[in-house]
Amino acid sequence: MRSIWTGAIGFGLVNIPIKLYSATESARLDLDMLDKRDHARIHYSRINAETRKEVAWADIVKGFKYDDDYVVLEDEDFEKASPEKSKTIAIEEFTEEAEIDPAFYDTPYYIEPAKGGERAYALLRAALQDTGKVAVGRFVMRSRENLCLLRPSGSMLVLMKLRFAEEIRDTGELKLPSEKTDIKTAELKMAESLIAQLTPKKFDIGKYKDNYDAELMKLIEAKAKGKKVKTVKPKAKTAKTVDLMEQLKASLGHKKAS
């Protein structure tokens, strides 16, 4: 793996040099955009809006429209805006992980200690494990300030990039049933029984595989061999009754799919 960011974790006056690595990678099939007339690949070009000519990456800069002109920003300008955050993940507070709604979670990264930071890294990891807390901080990466959460995971510290509160859409316009909606005791117990039936002794997320790409690959191979692929429309599962209690009873009668 190649690190995507190097800097340090600021833990009080303790400075922990670290490297960040992407924790995820795409597992999707690599599909190309083609011209349907001759199957030639489609390329995207960077076109100057005035001259209509293609612009090389080396000649592209970032700018902000201010009044009727653009203010061009260089790489060093982003660091000048907040130099202390450009190379430091500044821990600002600690909290219980349950206090942070999963809706705020964005992208996970692995944290590795850089040379000289091993003991301080281990210290922060142990302190988080013992207290059951997570660290919340901010840092700058790719010209943007990021909110983040640091938590231990086995022998490693993981950074979870978080969304800022202003990025979460307001739910006021949604039409939701009131929390005072009358729920019958028997229905609630039946729903809880269904939850218990579908709860394994130990949850294993590794058993869930992305089967769609595998099925799509079978279709691609069939079409490559000139075979016709039949479309089988899935049958929607519909309850035979509108009675909620009867639907729950029928659900409990079904065996859990493996």
Distance between the termini: 34 Å
Stretches with pLDDT under 50, minimum 5 residues: none
Return the average pLDDT rounded to an integer: 87
State the strand order across the main sheet: 1-2-6-9-8-7-5
CATH fold-level label of one domain: Ku70, Chain: A, Domain 2
- Largest β-sheet summary: 7 strands, mixed, barrel
Give helix % range: 10-25%
Which structural class do you get from the secondary structure elements? alpha+beta
Radius of gyration: 26 Å
Tell me which CATH architecture of one domain applies here.
Beta Barrel
Explain what the structure shows.
The chain is extended. The longest helix has 14 residues. With 258 residues, the protein is of the alpha+beta class. The mean pLDDT is 87. Helix 4 packs parallel to helix 6. The protein has 6 helices and 9 strands.
List the helices and strands and how they pair.
Blueprint lengths: L4 E7 L2 E9 L39 E5 L2 E5 L1 H7 L1 H4 L1 E9 L8 E9 L4 H14 L1 E9 L2 E10 L2 E7 L22 H13 L14 H13 L19 H10 L5
Parallel strand pairs: 1-5
Antiparallel strand pairs: 1-2, 2-6, 3-4, 5-7, 6-9, 7-8, 8-9
Entry summary:
By secondary structure, this protein is an alpha+beta fold. Helices cover about 25% and strands about 25% of the residues. A hairpin with a 2-residue loop joins β1 and β2.
How would you describe this structure in keywords?
9 strands, alpha+beta, two-stranded antiparallel ribbon, 258 residues, 27% strand, Ku70, Chain: A, Domain 2
